[in-house]
Amino acid sequence: MTQEWSLSTVLELGALPTATPCARLHARMMLMEWGLGGLVETAELLVSELVTNAVNATAPLAGPVRPPVRLRLSTDRAQVLIEVWDPSDRPPVPVEPAPTAESGRGLVLIGALSDRWDWYLTPRWGGKVVWCEVGGPVRPA
User: Is the dihedral of CA 119, 121, 124, 126 positive or negative?
Assistant: First the structure.
């Protein structure tokens, strides 16, 4: 990515169910501090989905000590890049869950709410980063 991100923050979280609300609160506070209050609700939802997916991807890898997940938020003061690292190298796969399913909509939601999203492997740390951007210029359909 060639985008210039003038501000960023990183939060390392235990891969526990409490990671998601902590990540949401962190995203809310940082976006408010950065003057991006109009993006808070969407960014919180995206962070929630990405962190939940990362915690779930970490669970099968957990031995006596669970590896953490990491959230990085970056901004150019107009849009926000949300990146979430987890130690699994399994690619994220969007699926269309049954209408009555209680989970499985995360990546579909990320695709619908973000301007773009993708993922990449991280050879340095192992695992992967799933990322998305929100708040960019409106693109023609």
Answer: positive
